[in-house]
Amino acid sequence: MSTTVQLIETRRFADARGWFSETWAEAKYAEMGIDVRFVQDNQSYSVQAGTIRGIHFQTAPHAQAKLVRCVRGAIVDYAVDLRKGSPTWGQVAFAELSSGNGRQLFVPVGYGHAFVTLQPDTEVAYKVSDIYAADCDGGVAWDCPDIGIDWPLPPTGPVLSDKDTALPRLADFDSPFAYDGVPMAATGDLG
Hints:
191 residues, mainly beta, 6-stranded mixed beta sheet, 2 helices, 15 strands, 39% strand, globular
């Protein structure tokens, strides 16, 4: 299974009707190093621009890799390296994903995942490699100064869940994820 964050540019075939795009092909993605069996598809809808979801992860035995895409609206999608001992610990890779650009972000196990909506009425769909398990659910504070995400927020500020306002900072987080010897290939804006 791939252990590095990857931005995937999907190819669109357009004609007078619109376009068609293949968003998952197991054999093709395995050639790119994404050798993952996805077992569940999720979709979220956010009413307001500035909605932040994350920084979330699941731990073993139900740790999840994710393949994320925006099917309506636009987001900035983030992956945070949470692997203990990694030289890229706490560093972030991100990309703008939108219904217009068709990009996808692969977030491996060992990374926290978050996104912020750039437009109202935004929908995000993502595949995960394990089932949701509440007892394995965790996260790190969205506004952790040690991570330092510069969220593109509207003047009204973020829209957050109660859960996301109570997550620990990176300095107070004892990571359950081990570094596998593969540092994050690229940090910052992948787009």
